[in-house]
Amino acid sequence: MGLGPEGVVDEIKLAGRMDELTSFIVMDVLERAQALEAQGHSVVHLEVGEPDFDPPPPVVEAMRRAVCNGKTHYTHSLGIWPLREAIARRYLERYGVEVSPERVCITTGTSAAFLLIFGALLETGEAVAMSDPGYPCYPNFVRFVGGRPRPVPIAEADGFQLVPERLEAEDLAGVRMFVVSSPANPTGTITGRPTYEWILEKGYRLVSDEIYHELVYTGEKEFSGLAVSDEAIVVDGFSKRWAMTGCRLGWMVVPAGLVRAVNRLSQNLYISPPTPSQWGGLAALEQGSSHVECMRQEYGLRNRLLVEGLRRVGFSVAFPPQGAFYVFADVSRFCSDSFQFCMEMLHQAHVAATPGIDFGRNETSRYVRFAYTSSQEMIREGLSRLEKWLATRL
Ligand SMILES: Cc1ncc(COP(=O)(O)O)c(C=O)c1O
């Protein structure tokens, strides 16, 4: 629908592919929460997966200098060379993996990286396997390029892991690729090495989303898909651990034979990633680690506070999340439809959280995702509102 010259609403015929694209429910929750705030209510935000921190000061300074010094023009479509080199060094230092900077492609957020990779590799009708529940944009990227998402159910009893024994039992006909996010959104689970090995041994292309790496609180060590195979495609970015969501900067490491295809696509789709952000990204890699560690420690405290608090008010959290900044809590003691539950929680308790159905169809109406991207004070306030509100429901 759109507004015509007289302000009359016109029907606009959308392309057929739009029928399959689902909306991002978390954004609907956020918009409703903002409407309540506009009416003067205070809302505790536990819905959006966006860090509440600002980027590290050296990043802000590097972007300021870039803008002041005329670094505001297009760059190479695969990004500035010093940033590609710095990312290659990170793989050696952090994961012990040697990667040529030629294979590092800078993108406008990891979102663009997924579009490029699925666009470059998927034939119409080919399937991409992914966990259900999982990050809701993956299936939409796949559909957008004519592919077919193949959700694979994961169970809380398995710690929300995509475990090889269960994968063996799935009919994966037509699947060409697997996308695995670890630590995962919405469960915070770290995927174990056997899963990656199973995917590669069976001959599937592995796309490893590592955007939540370093945001780990339980002592486990995440490892890179590249540590399992040089043929893995690794997607990562600056949004989460460096709190640079609005800078729209990500990267991927691809096999040498894919670089030119990614290059051709990025030239056409967006020409080059944002230039000042790329200089900020370089500063993040070179001077950002102590800032990342401070944020990680704070998220760790919030993780414990929220898990304990959610259990106290009566929700079930069988496995405390190991990483990212989400708790996927079972609320089925209180409702059978977590979408309805979240709407009531928002309107009656003024606490915003995301219903499980945003993340798939596998028992997701039992779950709600709480993001700990708000301060400890706000989390305490949210928990206290929930405790009072739930007491009235039982
Ligand atoms: C698992 C996962 N991958 C990718 C993204 C997208 O991040 P970006 O800001 O780099 O596009 C998100 C954002 O929430 C995410 O949760």
Shape: globular
Rg computed from alpha carbons, rounded to a whole number of angstroms: 21 Å
Task: Tell me the CATH architecture of the largest domain.
Answer: 3-Layer(aba) Sandwich
Strand content: 5-15%
Structure description:
Helix content is 39%, strand content 14%. It has 394 residues and is an alpha/beta fold. The mean pLDDT is 95.
Short description:
By secondary structure, this protein is an alpha/beta fold. 39% of the residues lie in helices and 14% in strands.
Annotation keywords:
394 residues; alpha/beta; Aspartate Aminotransferase, domain 1; Aspartate Aminotransferase, domain 2; 14% strand; globular; binds pyridoxal-5'-phosphate
List strands and helices in order, with pairings.
Layout: E1 2-3, E2 9-10, H1 25-38, E3 44-45, H2 57-68, H3 81-95, E4 104-107, H4 109-121, E5 127-132, H5 137-144, E6 148-153, H6 164-168, E7 175-181, H7 193-201, E8 205-209, E9 233-237, E10 250-253, H8 259-269, H9 275-287, H10 289-313, E11 326-330, H11 338-349, E12 351-352, E13 354-355, E14 367-371, H12 376-393
Parallel strand pairs: 3-12, 5-6, 5-7, 7-8, 8-9
Antiparallel strand pairs: 1-2, 4-10, 9-10, 11-14, 13-14
The structure holds pyridoxal-5'-phosphate (PLP).
The site of pyridoxal-5'-phosphate has 13 residues, from α4.
